[in-house]
Amino acid sequence: KQEVTQIPAALSVPEGENLVLNCSFTDSAIYNLQWFRQDPGKGLTSLLLIQSSQREQTSGRLNASLDKSSGRSTLYIAASQPGDSATYLCAVEPNDYKLSFGAGTTVTVRA
Amino acid sequence: DTAVSQTPKYLVTQMGNDKSIKCEQNLGHDTMYWYKQDSKKFLKIMFSYNNKELIINETVPNRFSPKSPDKAHLNLHINSLELGDSAVYFCASSQETHGEAEAFFGQGTRLTVV
Q: Which pLDDT belongs to residue B96?
């Protein structure tokens, strides 16, 4: 059974600092890994999708890496802004149609 | 223009009632899902339909019954609601193909059973 862990559970940084969010998963047989953002009372917004054959994906200030063999992914957010405050969820898709989610990292960027 | 839309956004109801949550996607995806987010923020899959056929049915009480009238809709009907059913329910959709299956989520339905 796939288990996804996200560390830390919460993170508070001053504006402008870079953010590093970690995700680990127990079964490396995955098709892809996806990072989401969840704002309070709102749905999940897909940020980046890394396919199993890729090692990283970039979108603007966001960069996510994937190391399948060690079961790890890291989401980097450069030059954080207060608008980046949210909960970030990591999810992996194994060889079925399910996504297995971590519990998320709640980020607070202080102005 | 919303890709995956759920209604209602909030639902407060008494124990024992029957309620439905509707979900529609306009992305042309073949696969739709229902996820439950509990108080600890874990999201867990409940059901998945591919082209109107049930392909995933996790260990969910049979009081929960998904209905897919067509591949753009996946509704969730809940009978005899219990306090423990209180949670946020998310609908999602994705293309069928693995590896390219970016999932798109609705905004969630916060269900409160009193």
A: 65
